Amino acid sequence: MKDTDRRIKILSILGSANIGGTELMTSRLIAKMSSEFLNSVCFLSKKGPVGEELENQGILHRYCYKLSKFEDVNINIFQAR
Fold first, then answer.
1. Contact by Cβ (8 Å): 36, 67
2. Residue 35: pLDDT band with limits 50, 70, 90
3. DSSP letters for 24-74
4. How far apart are CA 48 and CA 58, in angstroms?
5. Has this prediction a pTM greater than 0.70?
6. Domains (ranges, CATH) in the chain?
7. What is the pLDDT of residue 45?
8. What is the pLDDT of residues 36-72, one digit of tens each?
9. Is 60 left (phi over 0), alpha (psi -120 to 50) or beta?
10. I need a labelling partner for 26 at 20 to 30 A (CA). Which of 2, 19, 43, 61 fits?
């Protein structure tokens, strides 16, 4: 299926979904950005408060927590609509 969304896609990859400077600033920036951008966030950890905040704002996000160093991570954030 072809992606017809012409917005500029931005993927932010954060190490944690817990409250911290980088996580909070990224969340605030995304909330203030123009609708010409399609933002999404990938957390390399388990669920946390910042992820819940993004969810409440309707922002695409995924958790890519690896249970072991041998586990593959497959991310598909931007899906065709």
1. no
2. confident
3. HHHHHHHHHS-TTEEEEEEESSS--HHHHHHHHHT-EEEE---SSTT----
4. 16
5. yes
6. 9-63 (3.30.160)
7. 85
8. 999 999 998 888 999 999 999 888 888 887 655 655 5
9. beta
10. 2
